[in-house]
């Protein structure tokens, strides 16, 4: 007896109604359009805020630019003896750039070393602890750094600066005798280096962790040591990231105020002497110090110095973007 069975038909999933699909597509398109508008608006808002700050500074500084040098020196108390606005602004720009560059020169090698240690050398638990500690440094207010620098660091480094002045005093940078207390630009540079260290370290560490594992394993498989692997695979890959991190730190150092005010003994000269007091001053610290005594025209003068600091920061950011764009083709990141 032959039993024939009818082949079972494969059950097809029920198709959603056309109206449901249509509503889902309309909702997706609406959400995409809303997200596009939000992101575009956010980008435009940044540009508007930047243009508003630049316009405000230029508007407030315009009376100082249009007033004659003699009248400006007569009506602004802290301009007496400087001759003109440019003569007053020049040493401030010089001191600002010098302090920031010194801080960057101190902080960047340390940040790269810490980032390499936490990303490629330290055990995982130790690396996590060190990462948290370094990140916490960024949360400390600048006034606390200023108090620590004035009350603890300056007396601590005074004998060191004296020894440096005695041994290397023939170099203009370390001409002495070193000031006592050590309220000099080199002390300020050390404080600024500590302040920008967590920024550079955090960004650099994340860039190093993004190095392709195949690159590292290939270098080790070819017989490279740990340092050779880092030199040939990790550092070339992270070169553009290091530059970006350094420029972020430089921007923080350029605009730092309270720590500089509380440590540095100010002066308006073009001097590379890092161990002598009363030689340099920064723009941000000068604005904070002169603001209480400034009249209307004096406030305009301070706004002009703030505009100069704004321009310097813009130039630094544009330069960093150019360097990163120029070096990324050779970094191995592609």
UniProtKB/TrEMBL annotation:
GO molecular function: phosphate transmembrane transporter activity
GO biological process entries: phosphate ion transport
Record carries keyword Cell membrane: yes
Start-end of Polar residues biased regions: 1-11
Annotated stretches, region: Disordered: 1-27
Ranges annotated as spanning the membrane: 43-65, 85-117, 129-148, 184-204, 257-277, 297-319
Keyword vocabulary terms for this entry: Cell membrane, Membrane, Phosphate transport, Transmembrane, Transmembrane helix, Transport
Cellular location(s): Cell membrane
Name of this chain's protein: Phosphate transport system permease protein
UniProt organism field: Luteimicrobium subarcticum
